[in-house]
Amino acid sequence: MSNESPSFAEQDRTVARVAETSLRMMAGSVGPATQRRLRELCEARTEAYPWEDVVRAVLAEPLDASQLVQRGLQAQRDWIQKGGTPVATSRGEGRAGPARARPRLLYSIKRWLAIQTARALFYSLFAIVLVVLLILLRRVWPAVDIYALGDRVVAIWQQLFG
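Predicted structure:
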């Protein structure tokens, strides 16, 4: 005889149905059409969460039990490796469910800023190296007129590109 107490799902049919619904959602086994329908249902009913309709709709989809368990365990492992998410204690506090993706706009701005910073750093270093080389050229060969060299480059540029 086992000393383990029966789980909530074994004690109550409602708990078992809600648990299976949560497992299917966590495993990503709810189809996109059902997700859309459930989102519309929840948006239409703002006063209370229509959990019975949600459970009924999710459990109505046919599913292979072994595949559900495998996907559920993978989702469970991923959730643990990410450090989990805070559990919502009441409406509006915390978040329950998978972690949200980064906002695209914020990510794009950060990426653009990083690229511009890298470019500015590169071109600044390039300009410093060029100035140092010109100074060294002037020190090694004082007779070289770098301004005349610049005039010659400008003249060639104007001949080539008008």
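Summary: Confidence is low (pLDDT under 50) at residues 88-97.
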